[in-house]
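Appendix B, Record 12. Input sequence as logged:
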Amino acid sequence: MTFDEESWEYDAFRVGRATRSVDVASPEGPRTIEEGTIRFDLINEEDHWLYEEDSWIDHFVAPGAENDALEHMAHQPMDKLGIVELPEPMTTEDAHEWLDANPEQWRQFLDESIESDTTAEDLLGEIR
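Logged structural output:
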């Protein structure tokens, strides 16, 4: 069975806050993901251990990396803020749309410095 990203279904978002800034590669060139950035990472119940972690390390391709092997990655520590359960298993696109349509599910994780008109799409776009 091959992994099809467009049809793969997830059960929840793991919400975390970056504990340090990292420089990463992007199609537009190098950019920085700042300390304090909130991330919404899709997970599924098959990866039940992801629900239990209090912290983790996200891995991004580093600027100038020769390949995407682990030693060429930018490592960003994350502190868990919580889990946002989806009402049913959803694809990435459906989960992002649901999150944007249900701000009451995620606004609790934002601090007062983030504007009240921020949407989930704004936050998700920050990490794509």
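The helical segments are 49-52, 92-101, 120-127.
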